[in-house]
Amino acid sequence: MKLRCLVVDDENLGRKLVEENIKQIPFLEWVTSCKNAFEAMEALEKEEIDLMFLDIQMPGMLGTKFLASLRKRPMVILVTAYANYAVESYDLDVIDYLLKPVSMDRFTKAVYKALEFKQKDRQNSSPSEMENSKEPDSFFINVEYSLVKIIVKDITHIEGMKDYVKIFLHNVKKPVLTKATLKSYEEKLALKGFKRVHKSFIINIHKIESIRNHQVMIAEHEIPVSDTNMEELLNDLNFNR
Questions:
Q1: Is the pTM of this model over 0.90?
Q2: Fewer Cβ in 10 A, N or C end of the chain?
Q3: Cβ-count burial 41-55 (b if 16+ within 10 Å, e if not)
Q4: pLDDT category of residue 87 using cuts at 50, 70 and 90
């Protein structure tokens, strides 16, 4: 498998360094490089790109704003000299966030993440699902300034806590805490068998063990279900009363 790569950086030296790194990795293929977001838009229309290396501080449009504007986008690794965009970038589901100057060891680790993501995406999706579904089979979140990969099918439920969410995973005792809204996960996981059952909870309906007294039991957790959501939940479970 080859990952076709696009490099976007307004600095000539920055572009060249990433290009040279790409050429040293057997499963990467450098396609083209761009100096700004507008050139990158054209390149993405003309070329089939699997992985984009994107700078943030560029004239005309910030890399993060450009990324947020894309409806269909490749995997993205941010390469920047500025650490202060890290939190914003995690909300954009990037593969990794590299700070310049980037060591070859760190670069290699990041691109292997991209390769693993691509391989699992292909394994878990039929051709029609890959074309029609925009919902991820996995995604990365910010956990204490690190990117942590979350496999969607491993999520049992999610609890909202103001500006943070707790993500509970199958066979993992401690939940993962990240800064986000519950609504953002409701939208992200809408087509993957997840349902908002309470103002503070989203559940994976495939993980439900039992339902009793407006509560669902999932992996020893009792999760409340609001009156308005109970009938919808039973319908989703094909329960005929």
A1: no
A2: C
A3: bebbeeeebbbbbbb
A4: low
